């Protein structure tokens, strides 16, 4: 199993910055990618950004050039450990619950964190 714990959400003014952190623990060797998803009220959950175990990144068009995803390996291992989402120039439409997600490289299992609220005031 893999456990994911998010932190760093909160209230920020439009144009400001916020950094989210996702700490992975457990069988991190099974993770081949960690992503950030978000879900706004009344909307479907959507991918914001993702980083693979090899460092490849993928962003939603709506956050390109504003958000940056990065990684730190689990201590003493080559495996994904902590994934950060640096959010700059935030907009009110970025308001949502942000979830950390990890894909299992050896099965179809997907792991989710508990979510962290991000609210951007105009």
Keywords:
122 residues, mainly beta, four-stranded antiparallel sheet, 11 strands, 0% helix
Q: Can you lay out the helices and strands and say which pair or pack?
A:
Blueprint: E1 2-7, E2 10-13, E3 18-26, E4 31-39, E5 46-52, E6 57-59, E7 67-73, E8 80-87, E9 96-104, E10 110-112, E11 116-121
Parallel strand pairs: 2-11
Antiparallel strand pairs: 1-3, 3-8, 4-5, 4-9, 5-6, 7-8, 9-10, 9-11
Describe the model.
0% of the residues lie in helices and 58% in strands. It is built from no helices and eleven strands. The strands form two sheets. Strands 2, 4, 5, 6, 9, 10 and 11 form a seven-stranded mixed beta sheet that branches. It is globular, with a radius of gyration of 14 Å.
Concise description?
The chain is mainly β. It has strands at residues 2-7, 10-13, 18-26, 31-39, 46-52, 57-59, 67-73, 80-87, 96-104, 110-112, 116-121.
Multimeric status of the protein: single chain
Distance between the termini: 40 Å
Secondary structure tally, helices: 0
Mean pLDDT across all amino acids: 93
Whole-angstrom Rg: 14 Å
- Largest sheet features: 7 strands, mixed
Rough shape? globular
Spell out the helices and strands N to C.
EEEEEEEEEEE
Question: Could you estimate the helical fraction of the residues in percent?
Answer: under 10%
Strand-residue proportion: over 45%
Runs with pLDDT <50, length 5+?
none
Secondary-structure content class: mainly beta
Number of strands: 11
